[in-house]
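Section 3.1 - Work completed
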Amino acid sequence: MTSVPLVDLAAQQEQVADEVAVGWAEVLKNTAFVGGPQVSAFEAEFAAYSGVGHCVGVANGTDALELALRALGVGPGDECVLPANTFIATAEAVARTGATPVLVDCVEDTLLIDVDQVRVGPKTKALVPVHLYGQTAPVEKLRDLGVPVLEDAAQAQGARRHGVTAGGLGDIAATSFYPGKNLGAYGDAGAVLTGSEELATQVRLLGAHGSPRKYEHPTLGFNSRLDTLQAVVLSAKLRRLEGWNTARREAASRYTALLSEVPGVRTPVVLDGNEPVWHLYVVRVADRDRVLGELHAAGIGAGIHYPTPVHLNGAFSSLGQGTGAFPVAERAAGELLSLPLFPEITQAQQEYVVDALKKAVR
């Protein structure tokens, strides 16, 4: 039986294996396991790629969000606005600072944050739009509200809005290099991006036990650093990222063409001004769970991103917002279906996926 994975990490690993092996051998030779020169090299490379002045590597994407929030001064008693349709880490990072997530619904066609529903109050300390599935939120519509904007750019390495790369649209941005991301490490890793030297310095301080130099701790921080071995992997992959993103765009265009006349399948909508990188290709179908089961039976690794909006997770029941609070996000959560997409996917694999999907949505 034909098999098509949701993501094929092995194909990507083969392309960088030799370069990574050489880089890792250098790290091992010099025993520069923490804070080695490869970390600062990658930070400079990724900052330049993203069009910002500063990049601070951290341990993972959730830490990146929390460190960015703390650098903005977010803490107990504050509120941060974010979409209900996102991975729980966005809200989790807010809660870890002691602040309260204030959720808003998403737009029906793109499923990005509905900026028209955003309200700024006296406790609002940050706005946290999410660049979902590889396309950027309309951050420019939030910049005039007088509150710092933190981009959740975990799914958007290389995505652009009106020519500006994700990470450079707001005051500060957080990204994740989880292995399945467009730019993925060989484990957990993340980064904070900003054009502000002050914010970058604060993030670096907080992520190093609040210490500007050994055994001096003027502020309380925690331990969140980008591993040197992961920096080697990320530098190797960054040199190939534009090509991989181009391949993703081509694959997404092929899916859209193949699905254009398939009844019962709602294909993604790209917001005007966006150049997505298609971290995920997400369609919407009725009776989603049955359709998903049939795809799995056909050997197709489809997935769901995300089955439960933030407010309906038990971790955020304290917000007191039950079913019906955010109808667009809730409706979408029951229909979303992520199809296999990775740079190396073939036309034959995509045709197989589409044929199986046609049969499943009968």
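Second construct:
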Amino acid sequence: MAEQQPIRFGVVGSGWRAEFFVRVARLMPDRFRCVGVVTRTAERGAEVEAAWGVPTVRTVEELVAATGPTTDRPELVVVSVPWPVTPEVTTELVALGIPVLAETPPAPDADGLRELWAEVGSSGLVQVAEPSPSMPAHAARIAAVDAGIVGTPTQVQVSSTHLYHAVGLVRRLLRTGRGEVTVRATTFDAPLLEPRGRDGWTGETEARERWNILATLDFGGGRSALYDFSDNQWHNPLRTNRIVVRGSHGEIVDDAVTRWVDERTVLTSTFQRRVSGLEQNLDGFDLEHISLDGRVLYRNVYDGARLADDDIAVAALLAATGAWVRGDGPPPYPLADGCQDHLLGLAIEEASRTGAPVRTAREAWADA
């Protein structure tokens, strides 16, 4: 059997999120190869080349031409640019016949989503880099739900990540389609200390007013979601991740799974996360697998790369997109799902801003 070649990808953009994709290629060169990065200026290109160790070019055409600094034509291109620019770059790549993995969201607003879908929706060339369902813990929960352990999933409560990311996780767990949804939301202000931000420890010692959004989403058919997100919840260690998945025969609460077994038996078990590198284990710190009652629900195929969960999710998205491009797997997260997730995220913001319910329509991507 021929040895599988690394997935060749390019990146348009050189911001904070773009580096995540380059980093997994640097850590796992046997699996991924970043053939080049597009930066707007030569000065920024020089910085990226020095810091990231990859060649840079100024235009999309140079990136996909397989000439000059890039030498290899990418199999797919990651678009990681500011929101208003994403549709423009995505459309340009599709016109060149290049498969795209677009960072979230794929367009800044509802009109932009509709315009982008009209431009490239029928191409079948665009996937969206939604990482939440690929996070190891969430992947294990999804596997448990798909196995029917809690029966038919009916409600998800998530206080973890924001807007379209949370919606993407909710819809995957509930197995909802892309139909009409009713959203209600309220914003509260309350004092909260912020010890950490994206750039590290803040030195803050006094709480100040910060916002919190509570929203409900009614998908119909008895399926619903509760969204709870606080300002800077990604980084603030005083706000932990919480998730509940309720089903007809049980529920998942964070890492605990309670379910009906028979007429006289209800059991509660917990997901077990096996990690190497603790105490006298000399194999290095890494996630090995996540199990439930002795059954492995998630196995880290990148064991040995020492990746954080978010990096594992990025690697999983790149790998799945590469397999799709090569005809070896299904589309990992089609543009239609990315559009639907952001549409509902926008509805959450609108409902929280106006205090009135928002009913989203059935859009052109609903049946894609």
